[in-house]
Amino acid sequence: MKIKINVATDIVVKPIIAEAIIETGTLLNISQAHINSTKGEITADVPEDDFGKFKDALTSRGAEVSVLDKPILRDEDECVECGACISVCPVKVFTFGEDWSVNLDEENCIQCGTCIEMCPHSALTLEH
Amino acid sequence: MVEKSIHEINRRIKDGSVNVVTAEEMVGIVAELGADGAAKEVDVVTTGTFGAMCSSGVWVNLGHSEPPIKMQNVWFNDVEAYTGLAAVDAYIGATQLSETRGMEYGGAHVIEDLLRGKSVDVHATAYGTDCYPRKQLDTTITLDDINQAVMMNPRNGYQKYNVATNSSNRTLHTYMGALLPNFGNATYSAAGVLSPMSNDPNYVTIGTGTRIFLGGAQGYITGEGTQHDPTNDFGTIMVQGDLKKMNPDYVRAATLHGYGTSLYLGIGIPIPIINENVAQATAVSDADISTAILDYSVTSRARPELGQVTYEELKSGTIDINGKEVPTSSMSSFKVARKIAGELKDWIKRGEFFVNMPVDRLPLDSLVKPMLQTQETPLVGDIMSDNVVTIKQDASVHEAAKNILESAFNHLPVVSNTNSIVGIVTAWDISKAVAEDRYDLVEDIMTKKTITAVPGESIDVAAYRLDLNNISAMPVVDKNNQVVGIITSDDISKLLARRC
After folding, report:
1. For testing contact with chain B, the best of A75, A77, A81, A82 (most B CBs within 10 A)
2. Considering the domain boundaries, does residue B341 fall inside one?
3. Phi, psi of A59 (to 5 degrees)
């Protein structure tokens, strides 16, 4: 399952992700990480069974962990189903259906944000 | 030879016996019955397209104010419109940007907002005359409040369009969307099998006066579009329709990131099947329409062609460019194009829309000329300094400092033992190294990712690249990556100052 980890300024220098991985043995798959001196924001996949203990391990170290149910959101009123998003997505979230509808497989989304800028109708947003 | 008159087809539309199919359905019908059989069977073929059409806009007449004004400048929601006409007429162009919101809102958004019944703020200024004394005006209007809102688009409905891709190592933001580095993707536009002009490439039934589906209402073709280029199968049309009757599903504002705003517009053209030649032409399929793949990283009007590809290949999701499998994106919506062809078909079936022959033919043999430029654009090679001083990558920082002092430049291109460019050091890099007590080799402190220019490119392109990368100088290299000069923003500003 897709999660977002937010790390505050005072602990951003500590290796809390590594500690939590070692402690829980969770196979964390990081897809996006934006870390600088003021904050850290990480998008990652964790096996569903490990989520509880991994979240506890991180929150006890001061991080915030939230579940991304829908990492990418589409405004159906704005989308014209052109398919501009299809070729820029590195993980093939968007595909054409039989009837040329643009289908969304949001589970694959790694929140890279490339499609957000590509969409001519500003129909896509990332869940935060 | 099957011959059918427009009168006969319209009579069938009126009595409900008309046989209408979409251009997609027609492919199979002609394959099965032949052109002759299909021409007997089918009366009208409908087409459709829905994509970004930048050369679009709306003429509005606001009605006279009290006291009256002859608007010299006017803004709708901070988007300026053209007013070089009588007092309260103005043209809202789709790509004009908001003066306060920039690229996120433009003329296209004003047009869509008006159509959706939203209020739009109007601000106008004038110089004042005896007949129009007023100098300023502010009001808020909706579409219902104004006299006319006539969409009149100088260039719409491209017969086909080229495919855009990018060989460079940075993402490009173009009117064809984001083009990822190193052929990361390719984008295309137009509806292929449903494209109106591709279904009547000899412009037999599509011409001046043809009644069409425009933005969800009945509209007309008023003539050839600007840059109409039948010689290269790049025909275009000029169209007109009443915005007040349109449907916002088919008139949609867009922002192409880093480019600006545009209008996604729905156009459907009926093709009356007056004979078997016309029927045969409507059998065109995605596989029959090929178009050129162009490299948009080359900033010239003559972008190099990387090959030809059909709409069938484009729609398959990947195309082959120099042996690489490249994913494709459509910038226009085939789903909506299909909906338009279907809706137009329904109108005709229900007897709400009649077909006509053009009152004039579109040109079949014209060509698009490039701009006549009477002032030569200087090239990088003309104004660069060729007395550039370089430094070897294994030289010391001390030596680099000496070179900078002795030369007139703050930038020192760094070269390998074979004199190929490998980096650049600036006076600032050296100061930083000295301040940090790092007396390393040049290669340890240089910037490795060097932005370069070539002698044969225009200085406007070089100036854009300096701007884009926020730098003040670029080494100029030949095709073997040997440094032949340096061009600075100072060189360019001096030249521009002379021009004015």
Report:
1. A82
2. yes
3. -65, -35
Residue B356 lies in a domain: no
Domains, chain A, with CATH or none: 2-67 (3.30.70.240), 72-126 (3.30.70.20)
Residues of chain A falling short of pLDDT 70: none
| H or E segment and range at residue B255 | strand B251-256
Closest CA of chain B from A31, distance in Å: 19
Q: What is the ipTM of this complex?
A: 0.87
The answer to whether residue B375 is domain-embedded is: no
For residue B300, the model assigns a pLDDT of 86
Tokens encoding B230: 């039948």
Question: Under 8 Å CB-to-CB from B468, ≥6 apart: which residues?
Answer: none
Q: Which of A80, A86, A96 has its CB closest to that of B252?
A: A80
Say yes or no for a CB contact (<8 Å) between B257 and A80: no
Looking at the structure, tell me whether residues B391 and B434 fall in a common domain.
Answer: yes
Instruction: Report, as ranges of residue numbers, the positions in chain B whose pLDDT lies below 50.
Output: none
**A31-67 pLDDT per residue, tens:** 888 887 777 888 888 898 988 898 999 899 888 888 8
β-pairing verdict for B290-295 and B163-165: parallel
Structural domain harbouring B32:
6-53+152-349
Tell whether B404 is within 8 A of chain A (Cβ): no
Q: What is the DSSP letter of B49?
A: E
B329·A122 Cβ contact <8 A? no
B267, B312: one domain: yes
Final residue belonging to a domain, choices B85, B116, B146: B146
Q: Taking the model in full, what pTM does it have?
A: 0.89
Please count the helices (runs of H) and the strands (runs of E) in chain B.
12, 31
Q: Is residue B357 part of a domain?
A: no
**B331 and B386 inside one domain:** no
